[in-house]
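Write out this protein's structure.
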Amino acid sequence: MSSLVPETTLDQHRAAMERLQRSWTAIPPGRPVRLAKRTSNLFRPRGRAAHGLDVSGLTGVLEVDPDARTAEVQGMCTYEHLVAATAAHDLMPLVVPQLRTITLGGAVSGLGIESTSFRNGLPHESVLELDVLTGSGEVATARPEGSHADLFAAFPNSYGSLGYATRLRIELQPLGRQVALRHLHLRDLGELVRLVAQVTEERTFERRPVDAMDGVVFGPGEAVLTLATFDSDTVSPASDYTRQEIYYRSLQRYDRDRLGGVDYLWRWDTDWFWCSQAFGVQHPTVRRLWPRRWRRSDVYHRIVGLEQRLGVAAAIDRRRGLPERERVVQDVEVPLERLEEFVDWFLEHVPMRPIWLCPLRLRETDGAGGARAARSWPLYPLQPGRTYVNVGFWGTVPIEPGRRDGDVNRQIEDQVSALDGHKSLYSDVCYDRPTFDRLYGGQVYRAVKDRYDPSGRLPEMYDKVVGR
């Protein structure tokens, strides 16, 4: 049975689409086409267009069908909004990125990941169909098969250069009312690699099912692998890390923990993983005074944006004689068998702690004859059947004498490529054009771009993410 009262009706959706297409028509030929959208979870400059696409009516949930375990969702709907609608039916999207204000369309066109990714892959792998406003100004309904299968395959990791998702139908899965956590404290990263391989293959640990898995490296010889089990039968006292306690610090203190189901999905958002420390929010006194409603990643992101515009902290550092700093905000995928090598290199060369680990495997689904298989995605070509680990690190490092801004990011790109890995494109990108095309399906992209944006109304993917 579907959700009895959809928060956004089909009539409202049609009206929003009409406004969107009118705003498209109003953009003069030759002018850049971008969204009229003030907020973003990107960590790179965003161009501002004099005229933008009106997506103001595309932020809702059209339907949740708990029997079919599907949801019809508008493209600019945030995961916070989407989870609120699905959790009312004890359901969740198959992958819920860590930050509340990431949109579903953004996670599909720009990728996303979370602790269920070792089972369910990336957010786009649970999309059944999507409507895309293409560069021609027309809306194409793309599915895995059919006349727009090429757009369906190339849309993930295209970052709005092929079009914008306006409606998506996605699969859902059960969400436990509570989530039981097991924190495994490890001194040997090789042991972590072995455990990730075991849990990925068996989906269990010590005869208990594992529904989600991620980890944190706090420094050499100190890592925590967290295994989560969704539990709908047992309800007992649960932790709350939106108050004085801080989630990532609990990993070092406890062997076991328990969170409410929705609280688990947003466990990293309250303190933006650990980055809220830069704003003083983790100091006990400041934390008591800082309103809980402002302990959110989007608030911190706005503060960072303000600092980038005003440069107050940078000016203070210069007056104190401190070196300028390079922003190093990245998520990279490294094959599991090369993880130890990458982390050892990172800890030696990049002065940044902690770092996040999130195992990933392209999602396998039932195919012909009952065999399970995973499909590949040309613009982010991970290898089916291979386990990767997303390594996330977010902050700044001092620019050493004789070095220049961007050198550390270039080193990381080189190391990731040397280990047969891949790098997400939401932040600083330094690749030259031939390297970029080789790593991100340039030949496939060109064919799809020419079909759906023949006049080049939308930015080129390389220009958009590299910004040169």
